[in-house]
Amino acid sequence: QVQLVESGGGLVQAGGSLSLSCAASGLTFSLYNMGWFRQTPGKEREFVAAISWGGDNTYYADSVKGRFTISRVNRSYVVYLQINSLKPDDAAVYYCAASLRASSYVPSNPVKYNYWGQGTQVTVSS
Question: Over the stretch 60-113, which tens digit does the pLDDT of each residue have?
């Protein structure tokens, strides 16, 4: 059974930092590209960042470039999202997701992801 478990969310002041983690189990982690998405009530799930299966390539939404950093440690089956310079608009439930690699393409479309975590809440106070 595949499990993705996010942690690290919480309440942070605007301008602050947060580090999210996602621990994977039940799959061969190195076969999967990993992504972070976020969602607020009434809105569609939004792509935030993705990292290729080997960690060589990273991709970011324009809204988070320069502030968020995605990384992974394959031997530990963990993917991270470092969030700096938090803005009120960053408040959301953050989800990690796994997409089975089929080529060098790393998707940003959530429908391309096979497995999802339960999410972790990030709240930003202004």
Answer: 999 999 999 999 999 999 999 999 999 999 999 999 999 999 877 899 999 999
* Cβ neighbours around 15 below 10 Å, total: 11
Better-predicted residue by pLDDT, 126 or 49: 49
SS3 8: coil
Report how far apart, in Å, the C-alpha atoms of 39 and of each of 45, 61, 71 are. 5, 14, 21
Neighbours of 103 (CB within 10 A): 5
Joined together, the tokens standing for residue 61 give 């939404």
Angular region, 80: left φ>0, alpha ψ -120 to 50, beta rest: beta
Q: What's the rounded Cα separation, in Å, for the pair 32 and 50?
A: 11
β-bridge mates for residue 23, sequence order = 5, 78
